[in-house]
């Protein structure tokens, strides 16, 4: 009985003292760790790509910047039909609109032809101001303001023939090409929550690539 026990112990000692067995065991452990690290790396890359794709498809177009195409002549000579623009959709979350900025917005429901239709116009009247169009001049709080962007004069003052007091959440917009523009003279003041963003960059045609003058 004792001899058998001793023999088993000696065999165990011989096995554990084998240097090659220790090396093989270490290599196997390293391989397992590498496989675990590799699996984590792959999962991390997949998650990163998923986040990037989500940002590109949903977050950026809806909340940061959006491409839009001009349709019509109402903003000539600043913008022309079929030109492509980048719209900054985040600035107005932090700052208020300024006079003369070009914006895109959802028209009032009575003037919408489709759910995704947007108008592009220039801001003249700001929240809380009183605006009037008189003798082809634009008056803000009774004072004439500069109107260097107009392609030509206005045939009609529309509802702005009489002074309009803008609410704290409204702006008054005009197209640069007043003769063909359906703007606040017709559709009324625009609510701030209908503004989609500010036109900041012309990306097409390439020959006119660059920022858009305020």
Q: Keyphrases for this structure?
A:
214 residues; alpha+beta; Umud Fragment, subunit A; 2 domains; eight-stranded antiparallel sheet; four-stranded antiparallel sheet; 3 helices
List the total number of helices: 3
User: What series of H and E elements makes up the topology?
Assistant: HHEEEEEEEEEHEEE
The fraction of residues assigned to DSSP E strands is 15-25%
Distance between the termini: 101 Å
CATH superfamily of the largest domain: Umud Fragment, subunit A
Low-confidence stretches: 1-17
CATH class of the largest domain: Mainly Beta
Mean of the pLDDT scores?
Answer: 80
Instruction: Characterize the overall form.
Output: elongated
Fill in the CATH topology of the largest domain.
Umud Fragment, subunit A
Q: Care to count the β-strands? A: 12
Question: Under the CATH scheme, which architecture of the largest domain would be assigned?
Answer: Ribbon
Class based on secondary structure composition and strand pairing: alpha+beta
Major β-sheet annotation? 8 strands, antiparallel
Global Rg: 34 Å
The count of domains is 2
**Percent range of helical residues:** 25-40%
The oligomeric state of the chains shown is: single chain
